[in-house]
Amino acid sequence: MPLFINRDQMFAHQVHLLEHKLRSKEERILDLETEKAILHLRLAEKVLQLQRNTQSVTRLALGKILADVQNLKQDLSEIFAVYANGVSELEGQSKRILEQLDEAGSALNGCHGDDLQSLRSHIHNTLVELRGNIRVHCRVRPVLPLDQVQPSSSTLGSTVSEEVISAVGNDTVLVNCLKNGNPILNKVFEFERVHGPEDSQNAVFEEVKSLLTSLLDGYNVCIMAYGQTGSGKTHTMMGSQGPSGAPQPEEQQGIIPKAAVELFSGAPGQHRDVITTASGTSEVPSLRYERVRSAPEVMQLIRAVVRLRARCPTLVHAHSSRSHLVVTVTVSSESTPALALARRLQSAKREPQHCPRRETKLQLVDLAGSECVGMSGVTGSALWETSCINRSLSALSDVLGALAAEQRPHVPYRNSKLTHLLQDAIGGDAKLLVMLCVSPAQQFITESLQSLSFGSRARQVQRQAPHRKNNNLKTK
Ligand SMILES: Nc1ncnc2c1ncn2[C@@H]1O[C@H](COP(=O)(O)OP(=O)(O)OP(=O)(O)O)[C@@H](O)[C@H]1O
Description:
The longest helix has 103 residues, at 7-109. This protein is α/β, with parallel strands linked by helices. Helix 3 crosses helix 5, helix 5 (255-266) packs antiparallel against helix 6 (295-308) and helix 9 runs parallel beside helix 12 (445-460). It is built from 12 helices and 16 strands. The chain is 50% helix and 17% strand. Strands 1, 7, 8, 9, 10, 13, 14, 15 and 16 form a 9-stranded mixed sheet that branches. Strands 4-5-6 form a 3-stranded antiparallel sheet, covered by helices on one side. Strand 5 and strand 6 (185-190) form a beta hairpin. The structure holds adenosine-5'-triphosphate. Adenosine-5'-triphosphate binds at residues 141-142, 144, 227, 229-235, 240, 317, 319-321, 368-369, 437.
């Protein structure tokens, strides 16, 4: 076939080809633009999705942060409440101190000598109470025949031991430590109240009487006599029996009978429950509970128990007690006048009574005396008793030592039945008064110094301030 293509035809053919190419290009461009649009759409979708995801993550994080903030707010408000309580308690305490100082200031204008002394001791006692300290009183008894030095082979008759311990003012005990060939060394001990040999039973009781008011006000109270054998603990707590065993005249009675009278004279007509134990046992369920209605009934009960108390003559003391005596009086009362009124109203309407009663506890303790075995000359079962007595007294000293130390990892209450039984009074929030009894005689100076150091140690103890009992309410 002849291949004669003229110029026009060739151009037309080329135009055709170019047009074809152009169309293909245009189609390709269209495809690409479509693809681009699709990609844009996808991108927009992804961006949107990303935004949504970011928002939900942020919302979650925000929710968590908000919950944390709420928790923090709650914690802060709790901390603030505790802080506010503490502040108001401190304010209350400062207010009471300021009131005391105010009273003291105005009283100071008109007082001298003895007045100032009693004001000082009043303020001091208030501070002791606010700090939760244990109060310590000390009684130095007169020189007595039992202070006679036993005759030795080189001397003919017995001689009275030299008087080396004395009360100075109302709050100081002075000890002259005389040692052969050495200069006199004076030691001074300070306590909340110090009684000298001339102080009567009434004077000693007057200084502890305010604790009985506290008892009726709703505080637990414990008064404990501590001292070596023959130093006057039983005389101070019970009073000394006359030679015939006749009832003691009132002025010879000790703290226990006087407290019994005081309790009943304070609120006549109310019933009192009394728990007594002469052995210091911690098995409280085995105790006998006796309801009493008058002071003579209390004393009758106590005398019956005291008759069972182990005694044994020693070289130091002919009527030495060989056991601790713990008298526990439980006082039940309606906690507030409003409750008393409510109870009266209920009873008038013959409604069943649901009024709470408050119970407070008074513990009066005459400890057995610490003693030096060599000096007391005991043997046999009395020697065993002495060792038990000394061990329980040393457990008491250890408990006070642990409480007085700033860090108290462990207080060994369970080391003796005595400390176990008195645990609440010693370490709890009861008002505790330790009545130290000491002999003034040179012969017993080592034991007396031991007792005075025990008292000083007790004063170091800082417990929580005594609290009124309102948590042991009983429903009648
Ligand atoms: N302040 C005092 N005034 C007069 N006599 C006292 C005084 N204190 C103690 N006595 C007498 O001293 C003696 C010993 O006193 P008490 O029996 O009270 O000692 P105690 O410390 O209880 O001894 P123990 O631990 O051995 O039983 C008694 O005869 C007592 O009457």
